[in-house]
Structure formats: C-alpha cells, structure tokens
Write a structure and sequence with these properties.
Elements: E1 3-11, E2 23-27, E3 32-36, H1 43-51, E4 59-66, E5 69-70, E6 81-84, H2 96-103, H3 111-124, H4 140-153, E7 158-162, H5 170-187, E8 191-194, H6 198-203, E9 206-209
Parallel strand pairs: 3-8, 3-9, 6-7, 7-8
Antiparallel strand pairs: 1-2, 1-4, 4-5
Length: 212
C-alpha cells in the first residue's frame, strides 16, 4: 500500500515554469515523509494535487499511484486519501461523536456498531466520553486528535498532512505530532507531510526538499 509519485510537477495558472523540479518519490506503508522548501515552491499545492483538490487552471505532469491504482482520473472522494489541515476542519454543526461517525467507512452498518467504533476511536485519542461534546469546546490538540481518528476511521490508503501542527504551542505540538505519526505507523499507511518546522522534519522517517 505505497504512495508512488513519478515525474510529478505543477504549473500554476498563467505561469510557464513549473513550481518545482519533476518529483519522483515512493512512500512506504507506515512511513512518513516530510516535504520542506521555501514559501511558494508548491508544497501545499502538491498535497492538493495528490488529494484531488488542486484548483482549476493548474497544469500537471507525471503520475501518482496509490495501492497500485492511478489517481489521475479519480475525484477526491474516490482516492482513498485522508487529509489533515491546520484547523482540523471538524464540522461545527455536528458533535464530536457525529464528526467521527461521518468518517466511518460504509461497511460499518447499524447504530450499535457505529457507536462502538466511535467510542473506540475516542478512547484511542484519550477523549473517552466526548461523544456529545461541541467541537468548539475542544482545545487545538483535541481537535487535531479527533480529526486524525476521523480520517483513520475511513480506512484511507494514505494520509496527507498540510501544516497540521503549525498553530499549536511548542509543547503541545510535540505531543500531537507524536500521537499522529505513531498512529500512522501503526496503521501501516504511507503519509506525506508538508511543514516549515525543522522539528517536524526530525520526527519524520525521511525529509524531501522541493527545489525549483
């Protein structure tokens, strides 16, 4: 279940040159690769491209395969890719439990089975009993843990992390980063993380520097 990029490059709307040199990369199951580089080099655009959220007008080259399948022609919801963003992007109108239930794969049927899966996820996140809580009452670290568990409940083939720890205080950032990366490793899925923080890079298994 590896993530494979072959000669991937991106050209922004109205530009002639690619944001970065053609990129080839293989991310193994359970491995986290941290992508670094100067602002504007296309780190977040690369994440958006893999996840299927690249804005219209971009031109792309190369291929992206995941779990043996070419992602090129697939819409975002069919790619089997989970994404963690800075703001966690929990649904404000849903409880914590309902946010997690939203991520459950379709095969989990029945109210009791779904309730059990949500409870197990919250226990793993250290948030047992938070099912009915309003996401607005959670701390930044708690929201990020809920966001990760929601992504994992969907059983994705890969996880993308777009500056997800950037707004957390230093001590909390270390704890949440360790929590996220350990769960990715235990789930044996490949992860690609973009960051400006050297500590994020040190915590990853490998570091990739994007260059123009």
């Amino acid at each position: 279940m590896s993530l494979e990029l072959s000669n991937v490059s991106l050209i922004a709307p109205g530009a002639e040159a690619a944001l970065f040199a053609p990129l080839s990369l293989s991310v193994a199951p359970g491995e986290t690769v941290c992508v670094m580089g100067p602002s504007g080099v296309g780190k977040s655009s690369l994440i958006a491209h893999i996840g299927g959220h690249l804005p219209r007008g971009f031109r792309t080259t190369g291929t992206i395969t995941l779990n043996g399948g070419d992602l090129g022609a697939l819409p975002a919801e069919k790619r089997g890719v989970g994404v963690l963003f800075q703001d966690a992007q929990l649904f404000p109108h849903l409880s914590v439990g309902d946010n997690l239930a939203f991520g459950l794969r379709a095969e989990v049927r029945g109210r009791a089975a779904r309730r059990e899966a949500v409870a197990n996820a919250l226990e793993q996140a250290g948030l047992a009993g938070f099912e009915t809580r309003d996401p607005a009452t959670l701390s930044g670290g708690q929201r990020m843990r809920v966001a990760l568990m929601r992504a994992l409940l969907a059983q994705p083939y890969a996880i993308l992390i777009d500056e997800a720890f950037a707004r957390l205080d230093t001590g909390l950032r270390e704890d949440i980063r360790a929590f996220v990366l350990s769960h990715i490793a235990a789930s044996a899925i490949p992860a690609l993380m973009v960051s400006h923080d050297e500590q994020d890079a040190l915590a990853a298994d490998r570091v990739l520097h994007l260059a123009r």
